[in-house]
Amino acid sequence: MQGESFLYDWASRLSPEYTRGYWHFFNLSNGGFYAAPEMKGPVEVVYPLNYYDGKMGVEAFGIVVTLYALCHMAEIYGDDRYIARYHALRAFALQHPEQAEIFRAID
């Protein structure tokens, strides 16, 4: 997968607790997808560029990481498929139990 290195990089940027390892990949019924690392939660997430500092579950962390990675790839490659997948995942995140933390982290 072309984006795996983006996932690993964003996970490292966003959480001091992330130490690499196995990831689970999930396909969504709306055409989106996300990946989440195999680690214990809750996960400390810190992103000074948008003043976010909080904790969330591993699945929510994976959603946040995947959203950042998709956005980054869309900027670099200019491919509308990344933008479409970003919006599909964002729509899924609206229904997630931790949607408030997810959207605070990506705001």
Polypeptide structure, described:
- This protein is of the alpha+beta class and 107 residues long.
- It has one domain: Alpha-Beta Plaits.
- Helix content is 50%, strand content 19%.
- The chain has 4 helices and 4 strands.
- The protein has helices spanning 4-14, 58-77, 80-93, 99-106, and strands at residues 23-27, 33-37, 43-47, 52-56.
- The strands form 2 sheets. A two-stranded antiparallel sheet has the order 1-2. Strands 3-4 form a two-stranded antiparallel sheet.
- Helix 2 (58-77) packs antiparallel against helix 3 and helix 2 (58-77) packs parallel to helix 4 (99-106).
- The radius of gyration is 13 Å and the shape is globular.
- The mean pLDDT is 95.
Summarize the structure.
This protein has 107 residues and is of the alpha+beta class. Helix content is 50%, strand content 19%.
Search tags:
19% strand; alpha+beta; 4 helices; Alpha-Beta Plaits; two-stranded antiparallel sheet; two-stranded antiparallel ribbon; 107 residues
CATH superfamily: Antirestriction protein
Summarize the amount of helix as a percent range: 40-55%
In one word, what is the shape? globular
Please state how the strands of the largest beta sheet are arranged side by side. 1-2
- Assembly classification: single chain
Give the SSE order as H and E letters.
Answer: HEEEEHHH
